[in-house]
Design brief:
23 strands; 7-stranded parallel beta sheet; single chain; 17 helices; alpha/beta; 6-stranded mixed beta sheet; Urease, subunit C, domain 1; Diaminopimelate Epimerase, Chain A, domain 1; globular
Length: 549
Amino acid sequence: MAAHLSADLVLRGGRIATLDGAGDKDVGGSLVEALAAQGGRIVALGRDSDVEGLIGPGTEILELDGRTVVPGIVDSHCHPDSYGIKLLKQQPLNPPLVTSREDLLALIDRKTRELPADAWFTGYRFNDQRAGGYPTRTELNAHSNGRPVFILRTDNHIGIANSRACELCGITSDSPDPPFGRFDRDPESGELTGLMRETAAQIFRDRMARDDTVEEVAAGLERVFDECLSFGITSLTNSLAGSKTLRALQTLKAEERLRLRVGILANGFETGLIESFIKAGIRSGFGDDWLRVIGVEWCPDCSTSGRTAAYYDPYVGEPVVGEPQPNTGMLLYEAEDLTARVVAAHKAGLQVCVEGVGDRGIDFALDAIEAALQAEPRPDHRMRVEHCCYVTPAIQDRLARLEVIDSSASGFMYDLGEAYRRNRGAEAMRHMWPHRSLIDRGIPAPGHSDSPVCQANPFFAIWSLVTRRSETGACLDPAEAIGVAEALRAYTVLGAYSGREETIKGSLKPGMLADLAVLDRDIFSVPADHLRETQVTATVVDGRLAFRR
């Protein structure tokens, strides 16, 4: 007689949204009561009675009591490696911890008094828009007690340094601007203001990172994974992953400490890394269901909230002291150089991702992608423009023609939407993250957090996609609002699609990975304004409970 197959896990008595594309479009697919998983895969879906025969002595049963279940969230672009190091070593400066410059300076004064001489104070997630502007270098000097201070703006592309930090990094008032960066200077005195843009800030970031060990990166990743699981995130893509991150992730996997699934976008900033992938013959898809190479990434266009992203029209609103005028942002690569890199990676079988934020930056990214497709045409290439914020109708036409994925930084809407509106104007919001238009045109637009630039909680971004408002209530133009199921698809089905993993994750079907999240409310029926209050009560990864509130 054949042995009785019993499930490892059964969920029953709930409203399980499969997102299988069938049934009710308002919930993105079929709704079922129960699900059974065995060996990390879904083996049954249906009514409670349909899984009853799969319950055995060793089956774990999760009684849903009517709660809603959704596929595990796929955050298709974030930085858990750098976030983990920040959690271990740096000071958070986001609201409500810091809501004014006085708050910031008092905190720096207090913390630097506790540090050894010449120990660095480093902070992250500083929001100048909600803290009354940037501190000056003189203010930082007066409150740093002789210690070097370096603060990263929330976008990670703007930094503020005091004089001691500049001294230790070899930066003086006579230092020339680095390629693709800028040391802001007071227009009257010519002295450094302390504000560093793009590659100028990278000088200080590199100084911070050089002492990070693989063990520290691994420990930080574990802390971030715990946070992600509490938000129902079961898969994420580590954007701009460097060599230390690759070693740390492999260590975590070998030691069975990898508690969720990780995709890798190799870091184009790290000298020789992508070239090493190409030389070794590593192609997209290398790895397994837990740790997989998704592709490679370059970052030529960066921050609208920090007023550095590349646009055709100048920024509006109040400029920062020392900001170039007129300011249309900056690009971080020469076109010929970026194109050569993209073509080589594409020919080598690596999925190419290029960041573009402003319309000029997106076109710059698409120029390189189009050159790669001309050099080697390939159907279903799934090349991506990362963040892809200001997507005008002309850019939508180009995305559709080239069949490029709009990898949308929808997380920016919640945390940074107010700054986008202030820096680009209300009318520009019509084409900022235009998910209604993208869906109607059939352009794939997965959402992502870009954490730690923005908060990892996907329900904040889902709220913004549905309401078209920022955290502070700033209107982002309701004409581009989408439904709850459509927003959820951006963080599940399309997140999986963007990494060529839609056959194993993103929806709930027999044979798919048993990754899912149990919610404290029915997000398909609650008032839209309650979406951002959604909490995850349990997260299942590989058919096992990975988090329970």
